[in-house]
Amino acid sequence: MPKRLPGFALLFVSTALFSQPVQHARGAAHTPDVDIAYETLGQQGTALPVMAINGGPGLTHSYMVQNDLWERIARKRLVVFYDQRGTGA
């Protein structure tokens, strides 16, 4: 008799195998006074983009992307992180 996977295991395996990675980009907005580094997840669509503003003082946005929360949100809308002036890149 063939072994069957429990439902939750099957869901986990199918999610891991078939989920598409979200688009990811990094760059900098250049001005005469300052360059502000940014990172985006997802793509611009009809949904309103989300600006993820990190706390501080003095911290980059990197602590905010330690799990898949933002990637899940980015499947439906563009997510924009930026390093506030004087922090990060």
Instruction: Strand order, main sheet: write it out.
Output: 1-2-4-3
Shape estimate? globular
Briefly note the structural class of the backbone.
Answer: alpha+beta
Question: In percent, how helical is the residue content?
Answer: 10-25%
Q: Report the total helices.
A: 2
Structure, described:
- With 89 residues, the protein is α+β, with helices and mostly antiparallel strands.
- It has helices at residues 7-18, 69-74; strands spanning 24-30, 35-41, 50-52, 79-82.
- Strands 1-2-4-3 form a four-stranded mixed sheet.
- Strand 1 (24-30) and strand 2 form a beta hairpin.
- The chain has a domain at 22-82.
- The chain has two helices and four strands; from the N terminus they run H-E-E-E-H-E.
SSE blueprint and pairings:
Blueprint: H1 7-18, E1 24-30, E2 35-41, E3 50-52, H2 69-74, E4 79-82
Parallel strand pairs: 3-4
Antiparallel strand pairs: 1-2, 2-4
Quick rundown:
The chain has 2 helices and 4 strands; from the N terminus they run αβββαβ. The protein is α+β, with helices and mostly antiparallel strands.
Features:
89 residues; globular; alpha+beta; four-stranded mixed beta sheet; 20% helix
